[in-house]
Amino acid sequence: MGLGSGTVIWLFSIALVLQSCLFTVSAKKIYIVRMKHHQMPTSYSTQSDWYADHLQSLTSATPDSLLYTYEAAYHGFAVALDAEEAESLRQSDSVLGVYEDTIYNLHTTRTPEFLGIEKELGLWAGHGPQELNQASQDVIVGVLDTGVWPESKSFEYADMPEVPSRWRGQCEVADDFDPKINCNKKLIGARFFSRGYNMASGGKELQSPRDQDGHGTHTASTAVGSYVAKANLLGYASGTARGMATHARVATYKVCWETGCFGSDILAGMERAILDGVDILSLSLGGGSVPYYRDTIAIGAFAAMEKGILVSCSAGNGGPAKATLANVAPWIMTVGAGTLDRDFPAFATLGDGKKFSGVSLYSGKGMGEKLVGLVYNKGGNISSNLCLAGSLDPTIVRGKVVLCDRGISARAEKGVVVRDAGGVGMILANTAAMGEELVADSHLLPAVAVGRKVGDIIRKYAGTDKNPTAVLRFGGTVVNVKPSPVVAAFSSRGPNMVTPQILKPDVIGPGVNILAAWSEAVGPTGLQQDTRRTKFNIMSGTSMSCPHISGLAALLKAAHPDWSPSAIRSALMTTAYTLDNTNSPLRDAVDNSFSNPWAHGSGHVDPRKALSPGLIYDITPEEYIMFLCSLDYTLEHVQTIVKRSNITCSRKFTDPSQLNYPSFSVLFGKSRVARYSRELTNVGAARSIYQVTVEAPKNVVVTVKPSSLVFRNVGDKQRYTVTFVSKKGVNQLGGNAFGSISWKNAQHLVKSPVAFSWTHI
């Protein structure tokens, strides 16, 4: 039956209305609005009421457009607006700033032994294990991530006392999460924040604190997981798994969903964590380099720091390229990644008799002993060398081992492409971008990952031999690997592009092939095709190194409850080491060359020494404000970060480098001379004397005055001034170099790395 003309017109009108509605919805974006909270009229009892009324008076926004109101981490709110409404808010005298929401991304057994805490804490002078274990039960680590799998044994709570009375957090109810069953004296908080995600993406995921991804469970258990015997991934890395601070409590804040981590949700999670009463905040996620007043994590972290909360963040996985760091604010602990002394060897033997070593976590029955055909970059598809979805010709690869270049798509995903095309094995070869770094994966078919040099040899063999063949074998788990640690190639590098005067990252920690608890909602590769379920998984990334440092910070907080966040960071930085287990300077996995502080910061953390650092570089919130005022920011920008209305920037540093940071970043511009002062606080013994030693490149003269510091009492503070002079006649424009300044006595070495950059002749 045909449609009448009136029906057609009516349907057309409906279509136009629907199209208009869809356009209106799509035009709305999430904005984070910073209010001048001190201007709130006395007629309002709460800032939330004022925000809602102010919003409705200037825009057509409905009450459900208001996603969050912030008070502890920020003065303002998150709201869904169109561009015109956002501009209307910007014109209001009561508004400091209106910023579009940002999407942040996740930076995706043997570790305690490698770090020297395998025998609990008894090796740390002056602190018995029972004393520190008991103290750490009062420390609460908040983890902002993808949630938690509460049934994991890593969150069991045997013999833990009652939850600290100061704790104000809770576990939230969801269809798949019962606080009475899923939370306990170990896992004392589990919340979720999804309004930003829901508004932007339609909210397709179940709204719950439960981890459907695995990443959050892995990071939380790395930081504070309980002892779990016989932990392993499909037989690999078998042993006792534990977190860094096994007796500390954990609260999880789910802020990351399948499309990413929305800034509005992150800020809400940080707000709630501050109010709940966490001592440490761990965030294995980040974005790009933006000014601090546009960086949601930096803003929330500043508020946390003012409350005495140390914020530990991953540096990012943008390496080995320079200037790829995330989370570089000086009030944040920025963590890069290194290797462990554990490996998972696998081998590729070619038809010409050559045998090459690589790594793998493949756990199936293997290939057997027979050589099979080897294929590389065959067929008409230009992306077949990368083994991207749909790029392989089954008629060519069926029954063969496929050589795939690393890059573009996920490593394990390439194996699925090979398997689905009929391949029986994969050699995953690094390109120049990854160098010699090897990351093991629990592939769904026999697969071996090899470095660039080996990859080039195999590529040449596959392209020149008339009948190239290969067979793959697997070697299980080995320990005591040398050299280690090595800086991971993926670990993001300096220089710091937001404030080049602050050297970042701060430290590196274990971040390659880390075994920790996992969500049983997803397979170990995270791929939809992976139907395996495991209680533990092995992962790599600065996402893994960050919670190591978060857990160690919890131990330091337990031992020194009166220490500020900057004191804890200083202890971890100044005691870090820069020699590997062969007594050689730390190397870079990219090409096995020596690493530098743009890659490893102060070095690899040494928790036993950090507990007793001797001296610390402390920083007060007021000094951070002086730092911000020394940047090229407006007063409104500074107020956006600091949340204080009375800031005038009448006191500020002449140079951002004057911040009392435990490292130095020296920029030689129009002047060849740079002079900085630092203050050290004695947290060691009374009547301590320290002498200075300097390492510097040949073209820089470094003078430290005084060269000796005497501390009569515990808590005494002493200042020193260091002058850096770039020698005349040496053109270093665009160059960089590195050195160090160390204060030492018989008991302690307090070391600060120095980075030098020349920006003008």
UniProtKB/TrEMBL annotation:
Signal peptide feature range: 1-27
Domain of life, per lineage: Eukaryota
Species of provenance: Forsythia ovata
The name this protein goes by in its record: Subtilase family protein
Ranges for domain Inhibitor I9: 31-107
Family: Belongs to the peptidase S8 family.
GO biological process: proteolysis; system development
Annotated ranges, domain Subtilisin-like protease fibronectin type-III: 658-755
The entry's keywords: Glycoprotein, Hydrolase, Protease, Secreted, Serine protease, Signal, Zymogen
Domain Peptidase S8/S53: residue ranges: 137-582
UniProt keyword Zinc, yes or no: no
GO-annotated molecular function: serine-type endopeptidase activity
PROSITE patterns, sorted: SUBTILASE (PS51892), SUBTILASE_SER (PS00138)
PA domain segment(s): 375-457
UniProt-annotated catalytic positions: D145 (charge relay system), H215 (charge relay system), S543 (charge relay system)
Location of the protein in the cell: Secreted
GO-annotated cellular components: extracellular region
Pfam families in alphabetical order: fn3_6, Inhibitor_I9, PA, Peptidase_S8
Record CDD domains: PA_subtilisin_like, Peptidases_S8_3
Alphabetized InterPro entries for the sequence: PA_domain, Peptidase_S8/S53_dom, Peptidase_S8/S53_dom_sf, Peptidase_S8_Ser-AS, Peptidase_S8_subtilisin-rel, Peptidases_S8_3, S8pro/Inhibitor_I9, S8pro/Inhibitor_I9_sf
